[in-house]
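Running this now, will post back.
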Amino acid sequence: MNYAQSKYASRAGGKFGSGTFTPRKPVKTFRDLDIYQKAMECAVIVVKNIRPKLEKLKYPFIDGITDCTMSVPLFIGEAHSIRFGNFPLGLSLIEKAMSGCNKMIIYLEHIKGMYGDKADADGVLDEIVARYAETRTKTFHLEQSWKKWGTAPREITPAKIKL
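Update: finished.
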């Protein structure tokens, strides 16, 4: 485990292939989604740890990276709610979240290419790139799951129950 993984590691626990199975909590709100939690963790790390270094280095796209890092969890939260009333728009917002992950990878690789160790002394950029790539893949799987049903799931109301 490198410094970035130990310093910024999630406290969710468990690794793939560890032999233990922990069932996931049911998703009641967007905050229960793993992709939302990971995207928010990344946004906090970018704003709290990476942005100050970029300000010192006078990175020209600092506002873009800040807006982009926040857009991913924002789109996920909005998509989770909107899908009930406007399913196609919910899917569109999920696509925007995936696009935001890709953009963040581009920004982070650009920073690494421009500044190298000056911006990445603790190796966090590679870790965040990996997290955004994983979040993008998991978001795609969520989108496929939503599409599988064709429409957003709805609660059964008394009017829909035939006696």
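The chain has one domain: 29-150. More later if anyone needs it.
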